[in-house]
Design brief:
Oligomer: homodimer
Largest sheet of chain A: 7 strands, mixed
Largest interface: A-B, 157 and 158 residues
Distance between the termini of chain A: 27 Å
Helix content of chain A: 25-40%
Number of helices of chain A: 14
Radius of gyration of chain A: 26 Å
Chain lengths: ~525, ~525
């Protein structure tokens, strides 16, 4: 867009109130709106006269369309758009709904709970306008996960597709238990799982999987399936007998321990293996630990490689772990809750080298890929095993499936189940595999630029060599925990922190679709006390 | 509304297109719109002149408000409203967004999957208008869970509050793992759990709980917590040792078996107890089975009373089971996934007599009470036990909680977790406890009327004495499975079926907020082949 294009257009408000605004715009050739979002408003534009070009941006993709008289474009909530008049003159009618107060939508990094009395449940009713006002107050005091400055979790930003998907699911309320309750939804779950299995490189006919409520549940399911495969008789009689052992790195997610507790294996079943200076599982120690286990007459059941650790973003060497697993007959699971999306990147998928040899994988689409909370997949290279591990009798009142439309609920621990695959499917469908890979590549490029800038700041110390989209940074002579709270209190950002032997450090997560170097600079300059 | 009020009002369409419609209405005193819904459209009305009364109905509550110049009312999506002019003349502007084609919104009881090619994921992108059209096609071929004629699941209908809650959660994307990520949300989860515990009758300070992904997961958690309480040492070393046993009725949900498999106890751990002629657990048989277990040197760990079985809606006698549990030191769990809402009814809560003696309860708000899929609670009478059972080390990068704002994620198997309590909280807040109880009472009255009508139909056979909101009906000399498929194919209804020793029968579930006797009559008349 050149300066010449930035001509004015005339804007007349026809109706304006809190819940909607109707505006008419008169345009001349080349006049262009700025690229703008509408906070959480829907924006619909009807062309009354002339020809226009509309451009929608989401951080994952750019979409342009040409519009003539009678056509309407709707900007999906949470996307930005820009509209330009191509004809000598033009006229358009714009409807905005709803107009959330921009201050309310902003939220606060130091979120606060509303007064507990306000949140209390009572005997009598509350009117819808009162509820709306209550929701506004909750929003205004909540942490803005939609902001690029939100880096506390392994996700950031709200995608238009996730909003569309969640509304759609709420309106349809189809349970994922049976195929007949939502035939397209069931196919969609299968399609995502099939395509993810293909991306991993598993052979057609072997790849299987199920959505689970979060990455923790996927890790849980991995141990359960490994147990089923090795000791099918435990399904009826329980795991009474020799103790089973599960090997993870010291940097692995705590969910493996939770899983072993619930699975009746006990937290002692988890053997934590040391890591190298890059936070990757130390393979010789793994092999020694497995041998030690065997000597003690325990069963080395499963090795979990972490693909993207929560703190450092490290990738355990899947290929080397696969060698070890083959040697000792262990199940290889890859926890790709955070790092799994590198599957889409031609450039970076070497981080997952050997993944096709894994028996199973955890994949969270609600983290880097912007799906709804939660969109988690347990993927498995053994067709039918999930069914063997989880199907029991007694569901005849519900399951009436056929071979052509199997009931996926039989493979799950859940009965009524939300279609967690849907928001990821819509994201993937909208952007396409290539754009998801490009997205990973762009974030990795941003990391390179960020590292370069951080290394040039004398007051900043970068910890470790970044593997993925985690940056571990310390401001020299400052306590990172105090810094984190200051950043929240000043409403600048919400980053997380962790500690190593030298003390605490900040963890920045590069996940937001619109994140740029300037955001990183703003956060770390504030942390350094540099005025910008 | 009398006939006199039914005066006309003048309606002028100002702008109309697929995505929005702006209409101006001119009114005279007493003129009234019909009570109408807007399918899935939002409807906003701005008063330009005059005074109006607006009435909103949801099936749970009725809300009226008075409006004067400059005020706006918004009818929540999925609610109905009626508007009446109180002044000599009036003028209003109405904005409808979006206008979903009513045919599309209707869906089909014999749902169909779209052609798999259309659902396939691809390399390139799909535009937003194409996605919208794809969603429309999915909706048009999906099962309409919003219809009163949808009785296939133990839920029916879409509440405005659930739609509001799901959009709000998608926009905020706050994880339930930690308090700092969503302080109000964390308080809301605690508030719902605290109030449910109080309704059960558990003492203040003892009641605890957590949201879980579905009723199956709550039953799972019950066995896990019972095991933790009795054998805390299993947490580290696993349940190696004497076999544990779990007692349920033959009519109980299959999830207990799934749970025992996953928990490492094996499906043999589930001992199924016979039922009386009313489908309630036969207490003398339970006691004999427990004694037999003890004789075999097995551990009778838990007895699960079902409050509302899936097929017959039977309530096991919680008070008698509590006696047995006390005698043998067993944990008493009540699976109230379906029948739990009678807690709100003064009239019917005797069905749950003895519930206050239970150690834990499963409560699903997404079934009868119209919350989103899923809104499930595991409720527990032992404060701190969930934490003891599930907290492990290794989450220091995430959990930074304080005593005043504890991180509820430590009590869960999930890490990133959707705020499943939210939609139920909004429903409860909107309607109030009294209205939820009234709702249960109204559905029970409808059951009485339905039973009376069915008994008067010579071709219909009512099976069993209804306990709750399940009606088991057989059309004499017709195969119920065939009938069910006919009702779906003719797009009349979707009911479920089951079988007893005499063959198959239809199961009707009375859960929809707007359900009336006429709906039941229409379904069963069609099934009987009676023209209406």
């Amino acid at each position: 867009m050149t300066e010449n294009d930035q001509k004015n257009y005339e804007r007349t408000v026809l109706f304006a109130c809190k819940q909607f605004e109707v505006v008419r715009c008169r345009w001349t050739e080349g006049s262009t709106s700025p690229l703008h979002g509408h906070a959480w408003s829907q924006c619909h534009v009807l062309i009354e006269e002339g020809t226009f070009e509309n451009r929608i941006e989401t951080g994952f993709k750019v979409e342009t369309s040409r519009l003539s008289v009678g056509q309407v474009i709707s900007t999906p909530v949470a996307a930005r758009h820009e509209i330009k008049c191509l004809s000598p003159t033009g006229s358009s009618v714009h409807v905005y709904v709803p107009k959330i107060d921009p201050v309310t939508a902003q939220g606060q990094f130091l979120g606060q709970a509303l007064n507990s009395e306000v949140l209390q449940l009572q005997e009598g009713s509350t009117t819808f306008p009162e509820l709306e006002s209550l929701l506004s107050r909750i929003r205004a005091t909540s942490v803005p996960a939609h902001s690029p400055f939100f880096m506390n979790q392994l996700f950031s930003g709200i995608t238009p597709e996730a909003l569309m998907a969640d509304s759609f699911l709420a309106e349809t309320k189809a349970t994922a238990a049976t195929s007949e309750a939502g035939p397209s939804f069931a196919q969609i779950e299968s399609e995502v799982i099939e395509k993810l299995g293909a991306l991993i490189g598993w052979e057609s006919g072997s790849r299987d999987g199920i959505t689970v409520p979060g990455g923790s549940a996927a890790n849980f399911m991995a141990i359960h399936c490994a147990r089923q495969k090795r000791f099918p008789e435990f399904k009826t009689r329980g795991n009474y007998g020799r103790p089973l052992r599960v090997f993870v790195s010291k940097a692995a997610h705590y969910s493996f321990k939770k899983a072993c507790v619930a699975l009746g294996l006990g937290s002692e079943a988890v053997v934590e293996i040391g890591v190298d200076e890059q936070d990757r599982m130390w393979v010789p120690e793994l092999e020694r630990a497995i041998q030690e286990t065997i000597r003690r007459d325990e069963i080395p059941l499963l090795v979990a490689a972490t693909a993207g650790t929560t703190v450092a973003g490290a990738f355990d060497p899947s290929d080397l772990l696969a060698d070890v697993c083959e040697r000792y007959g262990c199940w290889l699971h890859v926890d790709g809750a955070w790092g799994g999306p590198v599957l889409f990147s031609q450039k970076h998928r070497a981080l997952l080298k050997g993944i096709e040899r894994a028996d199973s994988m955890t994949f969270d689409a609600h983290k880097l890929l912007g799906a709804s909370l939660t969109s988690s997949f347990f993927l498995c290279r053994h067709m039918g095993l999930l069914y063997d591990a989880n199907d029991v009798s007694g569901g005849e009142y519900l399951f009436h499936d056929s071979k052509s439309a199997p009931d996926r609920g039989k493979m799950s621990w859940q009965c009524g189940r939300k279609h967690d695959a849907f928001s990821f499917w819509l994201n993937w469908k909208s952007n396409g595999s290539r754009a998801l890979g490009d997205f990973v590549d762009r974030k990795m490029e941003l990391r390179e630029k960020s590292v370069e800038w951080i290394l040039a700041q004398p007051n900043l110390e970068l910890l470790g060599e970044p593997h993925f989209l985690n940056l571990m940074v310390r401001v020299r002579s400052r306590d990172s925990l105090v810094l984190r709270e200051e950043l929240r209190k000043d409403n600048i950002a919400m980053v997380n922190y962790s500690k190593d032997k030298n003390g605490t450090f900040l963890r920045l997560i590069l996940a937001h679709p619109d994140l740029e170097l300037t955001h990183i600079q703003k956060i770390l300059n504030a942390a350094q006390g540099v005025e910008t």
